[in-house]
């Protein structure tokens, strides 16, 4: 079955060019030229992954991402301009899975899309500490890879693909420190470059999501200058 990708950008030349490349690679593509029409379209007809430009009319990419995150954990890649570092960090805090700076290589975008889709496959059952069924239990934490479901004390925590993989990597070895580089490899793959601050932004967002359900959540510890570790109850 073909994966369906949503492209949201007010630059029609980019939409036409990227759509052609993705369709040639076997994807189905839906395009939108502004955030408002994209939100309506994505609610009515969900897709497997969305690529969002930040600067758009009627509703920018940040607001669109925020609205989408209120409804689903749809994998999202942000397109940012060359010097929009603040926007990148804000996008990651809002729940983007990845970002690419314009101008970009379509081959790079294609690789990022494939990487995210692979990580979103329900058949993921790898990782130390996971039972053969794909379920990992760490005291109050339950991670079910086959359902892409995270439970904390029985409450559902809506995580993006990247956030889920980070929690899984940390919880697989309670008490052991994971460096940022190790977490990048776990969440993005060894061939993808991601700034260390990206991991910090994801971890902050993960903590915030858990604390909405349990304000005493402190299982993910920061070891300054070293990395992070998961503390089991």
UniProtKB/TrEMBL annotation:
Its main location: cytoplasm. Residues 133-232 bind DNA. Coiled coil: none annotated. Residues 133-232 form the OmpR/PhoB-type domain. It holds the Pfam family Response_reg. Gene3D superfamilies: 3.40.50.2300, 6.10.250.690, Winged helix-like DNA-binding domain superfamily/Winged helix DNA-binding domain (1.10.10.10). Residues 4-117 form the Response regulatory domain. GO terms for biological process: positive regulation of DNA-templated transcription. Keywords: Cytoplasm, DNA-binding, Phosphoprotein, Transcription, Transcription regulation, Two-component regulatory system. GO terms for cellular component: cytosol; protein-DNA complex. The keyword Cell inner membrane does not apply. The modification 4-aspartylphosphate is found at residue 53. PANTHER family: DNA-BINDING DUAL MASTER TRANSCRIPTIONAL REGULATOR RPAA, REGULATOR OF RPOS. This is Response regulator transcription factor. The lineage of its organism: Bacteria, Pseudomonadati, Pseudomonadota, Alphaproteobacteria, Acetobacterales.
């Amino acid at each position: 079955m073909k994966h369906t990708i949503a492209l949201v950008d007010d630059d029609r030349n980019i939409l036409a060019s990227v759509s052609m490349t993705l369709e040639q690679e076997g994807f189905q593509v839906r395009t939108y030229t502004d955030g408002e029409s994209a939100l309506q379209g994505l609610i009515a007809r969900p897709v497997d992954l969305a690529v969002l430009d930040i600067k758009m009319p009627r509703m920018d990419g940040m607001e669109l991402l925020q609205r989408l995150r209120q409804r689903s954990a749809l994998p999202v890649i942000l397109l940012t301009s060359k010097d929009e570092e603040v926007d990148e960090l804000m996008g990651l805090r809002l729940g983007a899975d990845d970002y690419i700076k314009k101008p970009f290589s379509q081959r790079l975008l294609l690789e990022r899309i494939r990487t995210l889709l692979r990580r979103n496959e329900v058949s993921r059952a790898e990782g130390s500490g996971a039972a053969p069924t794909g379920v990992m239990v760490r005291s109050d934490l339950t991670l079910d890879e086959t359902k892409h479901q995270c439970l904390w004390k029985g409450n559902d925590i809506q995580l993006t693909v990247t956030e889920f993989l980070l929690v899984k990597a940390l919880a697989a070895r309670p008490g052991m420190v994971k460096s940022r580089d190790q977490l990048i490899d776990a969440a993005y793959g060894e061939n993808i470059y991601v700034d260390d601050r990206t991991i910090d932004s994801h971890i902050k967002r993960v903590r915030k999501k858990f604390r909405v359900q349990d304000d005493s959540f402190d299982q993910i510890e920061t070891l300054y200058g070293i990395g992070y570790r998961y503390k089991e109850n």
